[in-house]
Amino acid sequence: MKFLAAILLLIVAVAMADQDEDSWNFYKFQFGRKHSPKDEAGRRRNFIARQRRIEKHNREHAEWQMGHNKFSDMSDDEKLALLGANPVIRRERLVSAEASLPVLDRALPASIDYRTDKCMQPIKNQGQCGSCWSFATVVPLEFNTCKKTGTAVALSEQMMVDCDTGNGGCNGGMYDRAWQFIQGKGGVMKSSAYAYTSGSSGLKGTTCKFDSTAIGAKVSSFGWTMPYPNQTVSMTYLQSDGPLPSAIKVLDSLYNYASGVYSDPACIVADENDVAHAVVIVGYGTTTATTTVPATPYWIVRNSWGTGWGLSGYFLIKRGVNMCNIESWTAYVRVV
Ligand SMILES: *[C@@H]1O[C@H](CO)[C@@H](O)[C@H](O)[C@H]1NC(C)=O
């Protein structure tokens, strides 16, 4: 009997190892991975750990799902390089000369979704550079300038990475400071004249190539949505002033977000300064209740990790509970 049980266990173990090998091989095929023999074992270990985590999460949670993506075989250090909201800079909370505030008691629509607006540029990819802040900086400038002129415009993240010495390039920064920098420069260049090159390692700090003849947008004023955290205030600004950059705490689970409304009790924290990644709120709504999950209010958030991540580059996160501090860092910017 004992012997039979041992054999059975062995068969199960072999079958699981086989399954792991199949999953790993399929992953490498799907994501075009060709690791050197030196890297292979470590990458495989990262992947298998992720695989277990994803299976466990999806078994235990119905509100949101995890799945494999380009981050599945990365180490923790590599994942940290995908962030970049800088903790020293963000405490300053700059506000430019104040423009009129939106009326806060206006009737808000049940939902807003700017993702498909013709003024929203395609999702971009910061790559292995902590430049999320620069991507968050340009999204509302692209959107609001297009609303004003009627013409879509893509703006340069690289300009801030290379030229904005008040921020830290690939080592992080903050969008309020970047808007102040852009004001000082007289505008931000079009990306057609200053393309993003910092995504692959080795191209981090290039020299500043500012050219005022290629400016595509100008900042008139900017500020934090106040009081914060306050979802009604953020929703109102979203409607009156377009996409709102914000900063969030990033838990390891977010890297493999695949669908649903992201939430994690560990991401509701008392310290509002506990944030590490800049993103952009581009909408809100409420899910319809299902038999397993109640109706859930959410924000629609734009990330800068490429279209292969999350919902074609976007994610939903629970609204109204300051999840990951997202309601503490919303800021608006107006264009000339
Ligand atoms: C949000 O801000 C509005 C406007 O200042 C205020 O009336 C409301 O009480 C605030 N809500 C919370 C939950 O603080």
What does this structure look like?
The structure is a single chain. The protein has 336 residues and is an alpha+beta fold. It has two domains: 2-76, Orthogonal Bundle (Helix Hairpins), CATH 1.10.287.2250; 77-335, Cysteine proteinases (Cathepsin B, Chain A), CATH 3.90.70.10. The chain contains eight helices and eleven strands. It has helices spanning 2-30, 37-60, 76-80, 87-90, 132-149, 157-163, 175-185, 231-241, and strands at 64-66, 112-113, 188-189, 215-217, 219-224, 244-248, 257-262, 277-286, 297-302, 314-318, 331-335. Strands 1, 2, 6, 7, 8, 9 and 10 form a seven-stranded mixed sheet that branches. It has a two-stranded antiparallel sheet with strand order 3-4. A two-stranded antiparallel ribbon has the order 5-11. Helix 5 crosses helix 6 and helix 5 crosses helix 7. The model has no long low-confidence stretch (mean pLDDT 91). 2-acetamido-2-deoxy-beta-D-glucopyranose binds at residues 104, 227, 230, 232-233. Keywords: Disulfide bond, Hydrolase, Protease, Signal, Thiol protease, Zymogen. It comes from Daphnia galeata. InterPro entries: Papain-like_cys_pep_sf, Pept_asp_AS, Pept_cys_AS, Pept_his_AS, Peptidase_C1A, Peptidase_C1A_C, Peptidase_C1A_papain-like, Prot_inhib_I29.
